[in-house]
Amino acid sequence: MKIKDGNFFLVFEGLSGSGKTTIAELVAKSLGAEFYKTPAAPFDSIRDAIDVKVCLQARFLFYLAAVAQASSEISEILKQKSVVCDRYFLTTLCYHQAIGVGMDGISEPFTEILIQPDYTFLVVCDDEIRLQRLRDRGMSYNDIQERKSGVESLFLSKYREHSVIEIDNSCDGPEITAGKVVDLLKG
Question: What is the value of pTM for the model shown?
């Protein structure tokens, strides 16, 4: 595996607390890329209200719209520099599949209109370590709902149905894991 010449687009996916954000930030810094986190403005400012107050189908469409906007913004950034993204289309798709939103055949049209990453990494972590990280930082509404409903393992299995590169962040910690990702990408 090696990143292409010119600007590249990497995505880090995974359950909350797996270390994906920290790893993505470190990889972006190491490779001189722009770090991009979804959902971006203005979607991030109303995310909590959407998560709590709307039906599941509307919630899915909100996050899908946020990814469509991210795709547009990332396309523009890629004209100047590489992008490392914290969560993208797979999170929206897999999470909503895991919580029971019917989406047969929905991913195909969107993979054609959204900019596609060169590589997608699924960051996994021992569940006890991940849960301790969530407790340390404070659990969001979504974190609490995922724990309460037990949807996390189904969410993770939905990720694994796609072409992702799995990175275990259980033992080494984010700095070493990010270094391993950078070494892998540099080939």
Answer: 0.91
